[in-house]
Design goal:
elongated; binds magnesium ion; 2 domains; Rossmann fold; six-stranded parallel β-sheet; 17 helices; binds adenosine-5'-diphosphate; single chain; alpha/beta; about 400 residues
């Protein structure tokens, strides 16, 4: 599918405007509701400072978690505080409810008088952050009236939230119906890096897909079968493929109802000349036991009692050898039950193999995949770390996303 041509903020002049900026500030919080990792805030700073430099007034929109209605545990106050630290020359203000605090109902004189008109009165050095947009049920429903009210706050809309651009939420696809709309710099980097990689991948192209559920990966696997030379399958996903080939997988995570689908994918791969590599040996054990090392077994030796939790050493070596010769690498999904340190060796090995191959263009993404990477100091050896999990998978599959399609097109 051809990529839609959209405009990004670095190729148009946006000056002295009120700008609604959708970002993905869905940071991970720790047990005391403090920010555990603020990478997502840092990643949008390029777009924020670019827009502020040109004298624009920013009204920033984000969600945090999956609140059911207004739930203070998911307040963006912690994000506002953090953003304030990154923008010392500005004053960041959290807007508790934009509907009552900001939207001016022009038909009602009393309404007008009783409301503080922040966007109108927004000081030059003020950055407004709207409270968690998922506090409003209208967001997920893409309610047109809600989107219109949001749009009424500004003159321009910018989407820098690649990680939510697969959603058809009001702040993603609704607002751009009413405003000139552009892509931010982070969105641009994601679209260009992933788009380029899929358009003309250098060969050999090695894709590593792990994780648990086939359902969330099946469309991508279908697409990768067309593009990649080698598809290395690990994680719980691999078990379903092993079962499809007739191996005993015992008590392992396995989606028996998807075995037929897995078989069809293997058949398709053979037709496309794509080599699907499944584990030949695995670590088995008890997922709850973090003390004792697991046993390594060949996949032909598994019994009904065994539970597969990681790649074995032979499989790691085989995957590593293919990764080291690759010119293009895509990785999504941990190849083992990494939450238990006994079973993170395969995932560590995969990560190191990718960072060792400095010749290849590599793209890595996925919420759990990034969480599984422990040695963050090697991250810059990867060409592109995607901020999207599901968004990255859908973008790889379709070459576009609803949130990208919604932006104004060139020509
Ligand atoms: P991502 O978020 O990076 O796309 P997924 O959500 O698809 O990754 O998969 C991550 C999950 O897969 C992790 O919770 C991990 O424990 C699980 N997993 C990987 N290998 C296995 C396995 N052999 N058995 C059970 N779960 C596994
Ligand atoms: Mg996940």
């Amino acid at each position: 599918m051809p990529r839609s041509k959209i405009e990004y903020i670095d190729s148009v002049e946006i000056k002295n405007k009120k700008v609604l900026l959708r970002v993905d500030f869905n940071v991970s919080l720790d047990a005391s509701s403090a920010i555990a990792d603020d990478t997502r805030i840092q990643q949008s700073l390029g777009t924020i400072t670019h827009l502020l430099k040109n004298n624009n007034r920013l009204i920033i929109i984000s969600h945090l978690g999956r609140p059911e209605g207004r739930d203070k545990t998911y307040s963006l106050q912690v994000v506002a505080d953090k953003l304030q630290q990154y923008l010392p020359g500005h004053s960041v203000r959290l807007v508790n409810d934009f509907l009552t605090d900001l939207v001016v109902d022009k038909s009602s004189e009393t309404g007008k008088a009783s409301r503080k008109e922040y966007p109108k009165d927004q000081a030059a050095d003020e950055v407004l952050l709207l409270e968690n947009i998922r506090f409003y049920n209208e967001e997920k429903k893409n309610d047109p009236d809600f989107a219109r009210k949001l749009a009424s706050l500004a003159q321009v809309y910018v989407n820098d939230a690649f990680g939510v651009s697969h959603r058809t939420d009001a702040s993603v696809v609704g607002i751009p119906q009413y405003l000139p709309s552009y892509g931010g710099l982070l969105l641009k980097r994601e679209v260009e890096m992933i788009g380029h990689l899929l358009e003309q991948p250098k060969k050999p192209f090695v894709a590593i897909i792990g994780g648990a559920k086939i359902a969330t990966k099946i469309a991508l696997i279908g697409k990768l079968l067309e593009l990649a030379d080698y598809l290395l399958i690990g994680g719980g996903l691999a078990n379903t493929f092993l079962a499809a080939q007739g191996y005993e997988v015992g008590k392992s995570f396995c989606e028996y109802e998807r075995i037929e689908h897995a078989r069809r994918l293997l058949f398709l791969a053979a037709q496309k000349n794509t080599a699907v590599i499944l584990p030949s040996d695995v670590a088995v054990g008890d997922p709850k036991n973090t003390e004792n090392a697991s046993a390594i077994k060949r996949i032909t030796e598994l019994t009904k009692q065994d539970q597969i939790l990681d790649l074995g050493p032979e499989s790691q070596a085989k995957y590593g050898a293919l990764i080291s010769k690759a010119k293009t690498i895509v990785w999504n999904g941990p190849v083992g039950y990494f939450e238990n340190p006994q079973y993170r060796r395969g995932t560590d090995f995969t990560y190191y193999a990718i960072t060792e191959n400095t010749e290849a263009t590599s793209v890595v993404g996925g919420g759990d995949t990034l969480a599984a990477i422990s040695k963050k100091e090697y991250l810059d050896k990867i060409t592109h770390i995607s901020t999207g999990g599901a968004a990255m998978l859908e973008f790889m599959e379709k070459g576009t996303l609803p949130g990208i399609e919604a932006l104004s097109k060139i020509g």
